[in-house]
Amino acid sequence: TGQVDQLGQKYRARLGSLYLGLFDTKAEAWLNVRVAMEKFTEKEPDTLATFAEQWFTQRELDGAVRKIEQQRSNWNSRVAGAEFINWPLKRIKPRHIQEWLSDLSRRPSRYVINRKVDGQIVTEFHDRATPLSYESIAKALSLLKLCLDYAIVCGKLEIGKNPARVVKMPR
């Protein structure tokens, strides 16, 4: 549910526990709540990127996941760069995920910096000199598995058709 609170001269907009920002007018704050609600209740999210954003938002609203920001950061720095991130969910096959895992194991580790530029969040990726650890790759794969499991629950993928469940971690 959306909520708008007055804080001094500004209005804070929230969707559940998701902070949407501070706005000059109450009407502007409510408009942002409605836009966010439409975005997150889209009837047919068809790409991994759009579905994952809804999945993370739902997990955050449910409040059942600790360290959600850490998981989002892991997703953004590892999964969001995958070749298949903007593909329809049903097009992603185990071989695509296996190739992504192999790529992760050869690539240097990354860290992400999110900053605001002209009111927009800009994500910057920076490489480190050390390779990505086995544990970091496993965490990224685990998040992808969970996201695609939820796609099955939502009817976006067929039962038993999570392509991330059949791949093997690279050694």
Structure notes:
- A hairpin with a 2-residue loop joins strand 2 and strand 3 (18-23).
- The radius of gyration is 18 Å and the shape is globular.
- The protein is an alpha+beta fold and 171 residues long.
- The protein has helices at residues 26-40, 48-62, 68-79, 94-106, 134-153; strands spanning 2-7, 10-15, 18-23, 108-117, 120-131.
- 20% of the residues are buried.
- Helix 2 (48-62) crosses helix 5 (134-153) and helix 3 crosses helix 5.
How far the N terminus sits from the C terminus, by CA atoms, comes to: 45 Å
Percent helix among the residues?
Answer: 40-55%
- Quaternary state of this entry equals single chain
Mean pLDDT over the residues: 88
Please provide the count of β strands. Answer: 5
- Continuous helix count: 5
Order of strands in the sheet with the most strands? 1-2-3
Estimated structural class = alpha+beta
Principal-axes shape call: globular
Query: In what range is the share of β-strand residues?
Result: 15-25%
User: How many strands, what sense, and barrel or not for the largest sheet?
Assistant: 3 strands, antiparallel
Along the chain, the helix and strand elements come as EEEHHHHEEH
> Ranges with pLDDT <50 over ≥5 residues?
none
**Radius of gyration from CA coordinates:** 18 Å
